[in-house]
UniProtKB/TrEMBL annotation:
This is Ferritin-like domain-containing protein. It comes from Dyella lipolytica.
């Protein structure tokens, strides 16, 4: 196979996947666990960040890319996600789940390498990275990362597509970065199924506690994003955490919020469509977006 054909095959394989076990699958069963773990493991794209060729950008495009206020938070988010996933993985005993989580954490670490290469290639100055803290409650860290990705990826799908359509991101750069965005789609698909599986296999008396924890995570994430926490945070993190919501304004993309939501919804569906239909799709954020869309013209 030529190099181009191998790349195209890996790209197709990361987006399209059917489980080998036939028949109906009960959510929360062992077969369900095998399905979402195998999905993540089998669709891994083995690209190497070190060999990515970063396209030479014209002065305008270069300025647009380097002045985006997202690079610090992007690098730090990947760094924090890596540590949180790795910490949680150490608490898990099931070998297949450990393999899948190790893959997930490894991909987060690879995202950070991709970003650091991009930053280096385009001469973007980064703020020094903070010391990442090992979460005291590994499950809390995993849930925060998982649900954050569900919010951020949903908006990233739409922003990425808008930036592509308007030419804000040059086509070559879109192509280079595309696998990273699809990887986040796989991550939230994996996470949504893990959460449904995990809840169902807990003993009944632990389920309300878990539901409460999930509610606390969502409260934390919404609070963080709406920016009520402003002022509690001294390093400007809140402003950046809001990028998912205000990104299109900051990027100067001339788009109505309603149109952006439509693109997010369409892209979310498109990116999930290639995977086994027996897997659950992340639905909470798309549902909220649909409700919001109803009120936004
Ligand atoms: Fe990531
Ligand atoms: Fe991720």
């Amino acid at each position: 196979m030529s190099n181009d054909a191998a790349i195209a095959a890996a790209d197709y394989a990361m987006r399209n996947w059917l489980g080998a076990e036939p028949g109906k699958i009960k959510i929360g069963s062992d077969a369900h666990k095998r399905l979402f773990c195998r999905m993540l493991l089998d669709t891994h794209n083995p690209y190497k960040p070190a060999v990515i060729v970063w396209p030479t950008l014209g002065a305008d495009a270069l300025h647009r890319i380097t002045s985006l206020p997202i690079w610090d938070i992007a690098v730090q988010t990947e760094g924090r996600a890596t540590l949180r996933v790795e910490t949680f993985t150490k608490t898990v005993k099931d070998p297949l789940l450990v393999d899948a989580l190790t893959m997930d954490g490894g991909e987060e670490a690879r995202h950070k390498v991709v970003l650091s290469k991009l930053v280096e290639a385009y001469g973007i100055a980064l703020a020094p990275e903070p010391e990442y803290e090992v979460p005291k409650d590994p499950e809390w860290g995993w849930l925060v990362t998982g649900y954050s990705e569900c919010i951020d990826s949903f908006f990233a799908f739409g922003l990425f597509e808008s930036a592509k359509r308007t030419g804000y991101f040059p086509a070559e750069l879109v192509e280079t970065f595309e696998p990273v965005i699809q990887e986040e789609a796989r991550h939230i698909l994996f996470f949504a199924n893990w959460a449904a599986w995990y809840r169902r296999q807990l003993p009944w008396w632990r389920r309300p506690l878990f539901a409460l924890k999930v509610l606390r995570v969502w409260t934390f994430l919404i609070w963080e994003r709406i920016g009520i926490a402003k002022g509690l945070d001294t390093n400007g993190e809140m402003q950046d955490a809001n990028f998912a919501m205000t990104g299109h304004e900051q990027m100067g993309i001339d788009l109505k919020v309603g149109e952006l939501i439509d693109i997010c919804l369409a892209e979310d569906k498109r990116r999930m469509d290639g995977y086994d239909s027996r897997l659950l799709r992340p639905t909470f954020v798309p549902r909220l977006a649909r409700i919001a869309r109803f009120f936004i013209r």
